[in-house]
Amino acid sequence: MIDRLSNVRQSDRYAVTGSLRFSLCLAWSEEGKQRAVPGQIIDISETGCHLQTTGILPRQNQTILVRLESTAAAVLIEVSARVCWSRQVNVGKFACGLRFRRPLPPSVMMTLLDRGLASRRESDRFQIWVPVTIHRQLDQSPNLEGHLCDFSPGGVQLVTDAAIEVDARIMISTEAKEKAILRVVWSRREEQTFRCGAAFLHRSTLSLMNKSL
How confident is the model at residue 51 (pLDDT cuts 50, 70, 90)? Predict the structure, then answer.
């Protein structure tokens, strides 16, 4: 169910964090021309989804066709949707929220869960504010200083002064010298800072981090 006034999704959201990924394409008509851009699903529910792309997004309230496909999981979904909001989140990166014209059947959501395309964070999140150092493992960028503001057995939220790209593999360390390795699953720009969500890659590091917090 969606609140028609606020466009806030009220149905359960599922994070697209599995090892399998959707191939996503958005298509719409503008000034008599067909446009299409690739993108990445951040989360999905029966009534809508949140996505990021590296291409220009359609306008708010525009109707678009969303095609989600995973050959490995034998899943293909095509659905018409309305753009509820869109914004630039980084240089050359954009995000938007979509409301499906017709809700996805519950059986479709179960298929996404069963085939490893989506997962639901069932554990509680704890609001904290802990200084951390963030190291990008696969490039030579300088370490970032930031704060851990949200923690659960599934992952964390980080606030930093610089953006961290989606899919980046990072290592965070606390002042107590405990470390954890994570993968960034979403990222967005805020007024003066950047915020991202990251999932734990190893349960052993989750245990160490949990003890230090």
Answer: confident
